[in-house]
Specification:
The chain is an alpha/beta fold. Helices cover about 35% and strands about 15% of the residues. It is built from 13 helices and twelve strands. The strands form three sheets. The chain has a seven-stranded mixed beta sheet, sandwiched between helices. A three-stranded antiparallel beta sheet has the order 1-2-3, with no helix packed on it.
């Protein structure tokens, strides 16, 4: 018991608890301002999906401008059937990590198919795309190393760089001259440097100058990691992404990406020509200490990957836009020579038609 007027442990705990949460007060004010305007960034509920690009949100039929369902494959009957069959055969989840009981035949098959896509011998599959990018950046570099990244890189890249303990140096967005300047300054430290870029930038929707970046990597050294999250399925003859489309896939040391965009599922991957990827598999916490991807997700991803590779109408075209849904939309609205995508005015703003490659592979209507 504490005498009246004395401060007891409970009071101190409340004060400390309050101080711990004080940092969120600015965000709470922003949320309140948005709510007063009727804006709900995390509260707009999709009640029904009508297609890959349309849905019902709070009772209104709308265009899903924020979707990453670039090829519409989440609705492809073959992907749905594959997911259903896998759930019936393997159950709804793996209930374990890849190092415990979570490595199923489906995981190994998907890894082999991803390796084949990039014409490299090694690949590993992650439960999310964020985990793939963050995990690789956090594991490949460490104290004493350098991560040289584009200033407009995704949060997962920055998160992994911070976890790595390496020195982080930013170069100006998509600026090969600035990248070269920083590589030159590193001198011999380039041997311990990881260069990180995105194929199509999620923040701006623009394509990286992959030929120039690859040439600098070849000239100065270091390892090159390319995040093809938004370019997978959009660029390249088989949808491999920006590096292969630019003809410099052989210069890439690590291809990283996600299944949650063009492939219409969830999960992520890394593919590499380096045998050390198998050692990296045993060193990446984001891979080891989490349950592996559910069989239904892996199966639908495999089906989507096969469609993307074998049906030319899927790659290069979509009913939505890569990257930021505002900047990216503007970029694609004027047409992209790299992606050969076209935009069509229509009552629904985004008009889609079946592609020659498959009845359920969506692409913009011709102008």
């Amino acid at each position: 018991m504490h005498a009246a007027g004395h401060t007891g442990p409970c009071h101190c705990a409340k004060v400390m608890f309050s101080m711990l949460l004080d940092k969120f007060e600015p965000m709470s004010r922003v949320q309140a301002e948005l709510a007063a305007l009727g804006i709900k960034p995390f509260g707009a509920v999709t009640e029904q999906l009508l297609s890959a690009t349309e849905g019902v949100v709070e009772g209104r039929r709308v265009i899903l401008a924020g979707t990453n369902n670039y090829l519409g494959l989440s609705f492809d009957p073959r992907c749905i059937a594959a997911a259903q069959a896998a759930a019936a055969r393997w159950g709804t989840g793996t209930t374990g990590s890849r190092m415990a009981n979570g490595t199923f035949a489906e995981h190994l098959a998907l890894e082999a198919e991803l390796a084949d896509l990039y014409r490299v011998p090694h690949a590993m599959v992650f439960t999310t795309g964020y985990a793939a990018t963050q995990g690789l950046c956090a594991t490949l570099a460490g104290p004493g190393d350098v991560i040289l990244l584009d200033a407009d890189s995704h949060a997962s890249i920055y998160g992994g760089a911070q976890l790595s303990g390496a020195e982080v140096i930013r170069f100006k967005h998509s600026d090969p001259a600035d990248l070269e300047k920083r590589l030159r300054r590193l001198g011999e430290r380039v041997a311990n440097t990881l260069i990180v870029v995105e194929g199509i930038y999620s923040m701006l929707g623009d394509t990286a100058p992959m030929r120039e970046i690859a040439a600098l990597k070849q000239e100065y050294g270091g390892l090159l990691l390319v995040d093809e999250a938004h370019s997978l399925g959009v660029l390249g003859d088989q949808g491999e992404g920006a590096a292969v489309a630019a003809g410099v896939g052989a210069a890439v040391d690590f291809f990283v990406g996600t299944f949650s965009k063009s492939l219409g599922a969830t999960g992520g991957f890394c593919a590499s020509p380096h045998a050390e990827l198998e050692a990296i598999r045993f060193s990446t916490r984001a891979y080891i200490f989490t349950a592996s991807a559910s069989p239904s997700v892996v199966a639908s991803t495999r089906a989507a990957l096969a469609i993307m590779r074998t049906e030319p109408g899927c790659a290069h075209a979509s009913g939505t836009t890569p990257g930021n849904s505002t900047t990216g939309s503007r970029r694609w609205a004027f047409g992209s020579a790299r992606t050969r995508a076209r935009w069509s005015p229509s009552p629904s703003r985004i008009a889609t038609r079946p592609s020659p490659g498959g009845a359920n592979c969506w692409k913009p209507a011709s102008m």
